[in-house]
UniProtKB/TrEMBL annotation:
One Pfam family named in its UniProt record: DUF1697
Protein name listed in UniProt: DUF1697 domain-containing protein
Annotated organism of origin: Paenibacillus rhizolycopersici
InterPro entries (alphabetical): DUF1697 (IPR012545)
Superkingdom of origin organism: Bacteria
Length: 187
């Protein structure tokens, strides 16, 4: 079985789109998703499946039906997440410099449903500066902030990429990868 990571966009943030993870886990399990586990309240779901295809759309339908919310789901397999973690385009020196200047997390990944076009990347790049950097690799946009992400014009303009995107900090990416690898060893 393949281990999948579902990244939900915009749930349990600022008191909006509230979904309790235990209830979501139950709903997904009842709909045939296997070995479902969640990580923190921001919409990270791991599950096993032999099925390929429209798993994200199926999950969106379960959320719509059971919770009355239209929540975009971005899917990655464990091997895709591993490649994301191993493929960080920022050097350790760049990350260390950002960490020294930042008041919080500095490295993030925006997971996109589809690869952005050159035109979309050009629109998005207009918001980058010396304090807010990005690099892309396929459907991932790596973001490095030398100041807080909270007031970032770059992060606020991810929609310029013309694809559903959901963002996770680097610690969450690492934890999800660890959980996925643990699930793989049990298969």
């Amino acid at each position: 079985m393949t281990i999948h990571i579902a990244l939900l966009r915009g749930i349990n943030v600022g008191g909006k789109n509230i979904i309790k993870m235990a209830e979501l886990k139950r709903s997904l399990t009842e709909q045939g998703f296997s070995k479902v586990q969640t990580y923190i309240q921001s919409g990270n779901i791991l599950f096993a499946s032999e099925e390929e295809g429209a798993l994200g759309l199926r999950m969106e339908e379960v959320i719509r039906r059971d919770f009355g919310l239209d929540i975009p789901v971005v899917l990655r397999t464990a091997s895709e997440l591993r490649a994301t973690a191993e493929g960080c385009p920022f050097t350790p020196e760049e990350i260390a410099a950002a960490e020294a200047a930042s008041t919080g997390e500095c490295l993030y990944v925006a997971f996109l449903r589809s690869e952005p076009t050159a035109e979309a990347l050009k629109r998005f790049a207009a918001y980058a500066n010396e304090q807010e950097l990005f690099r892309t690799s396929g459907r991932e946009v790596y973001l490095l902030f030398k100041e807080s992400v909270r007031n970032s014009k770059l992060a606020a303009n991810l929609q310029k990429l013309d694809a559903y995107a959901t963002v996770r900090n680097w610690k969450t990416v690492g934890k999800l990868l660890s959980l996925a690898e643990g699930m793989e060893t049990l298969n």
